[in-house]
Predict the structure.
Amino acid sequence: MGFTSKVKQIIQTGWEKYETVYGKIIRQAEKEAVSKVLGCGDPKNGYAEYWCLECNGAEKKIVPFTCKSRFCPSCGKVYTDNWVEKMVNEMVDVPHRHVVLTIAEELRPYFYWHRDAIDILIKSAAQVLKSIIAEKKKKLKLTPGIIIVVHTFGGDLKFNPHIQALVTEGGLDKNGDWQPVTYFSYQALRRRWQHLVLKNFKQRFGSQQKIKNLINKLYAQKKKGFYVYGKNRIRDSRGAAKYIGRYMARPAIAESRIISWDSEKVEFWYESKETGKKETVVLPIMQFIGRIISHIPEKQFKMVRHYGIYARNQRKESRIAVKLWQVAETLKRRKIHGYKEVAKKKSRKLTYRELMMKEYGRDPCKCPKCGSEMELVKIWHPVYGDIYDLFETGVVEVINSGKKQKSPKNKKEKEKTISKNGTDDNILLFAM
Ligand SMILES: [Zn+2]
Ligand SMILES: [Zn+2]
């Protein structure tokens, strides 16, 4: 693709040595994600082949499969873009608040060694944010929309689990009306967050005196509660979705933060929360690799959760309710002409072709010589072999059902099969 990320190159350079030295402590999830990334885009792991039939196959193009791992510098970005695209249409069009909830430094090692316990942070955050909205208009039983993402990294790439949340400023009441809430008390939020985290922490880890002492110490030391940041207000759903892309779904380290690297060391910068300045860090390559892979989540662990009206089964209904409320509000204010229905853009995954256009500004399916549409002639998979070959059979073998489609008998039918199977949607299954 002409572009290999620095992160991938750094892992490529140091991984063999890292495995030799740290083999015993590498988690299974780390091993799998790294091997996916290293094999991403390698035709050895499968590819689709396009020919220009106008030029009689003189122009060919191999499009390797990609790994689809979220940890992968290139596939992770595709994942994020898709997520943002989807969320624009799924969020209600009201102001949102971005809230970051942190924990005391002393607690971090417990979550490092017990990854499942990160659940405590997610659930506590959801509960505290729900309660802070609901209590504003108690009788109305408000349900806000909450999206929670766990970040385990700080700017310096050390293990620093914290919560990034996006919360609607308001909620649907028990009658299905939207109730805006513009003010929350940060003092209350901080103390309640601390209390819930420590309560759940105690439940999970608390049989030893050491844990009890730690909890008491943290109550005594942090009288204002754990640090919470929540000043960023976002006007509408589009802005909120963008926010997800820019801050919440970002990888542990952006390519642009890597200043230089070689086989020995990596130099990168980050914005320090303490000093408010750009700080430069130089790490031995082994340590850099160790830090970035430490942020690979356990395999089944969901780093993103949706609550309240954003819970999967409530999203659509809530969106309609909020929309109706907005229309009613607008009518009430007699600004009928000012109301515009937001264009209903259908949410869908970007096709491989669109992504190529977006990323590289070139169309993977146009012949560079004559400009005509190139035809998919082959899909090869390392396990299943040729799963599609235009010249052999002209049919696609359906892997899952094990059933083969019948070979087309005449030319016309063959053409039909090609156009049916040779679309971008088909490639999407493999090439993204
Ligand atoms: Zn990949
Ligand atoms: Zn051509």
Remarks:
- Residues 6-71+351-431 form one domain.
- Confidence is low (pLDDT under 50) at residues 334-347, 394-432.
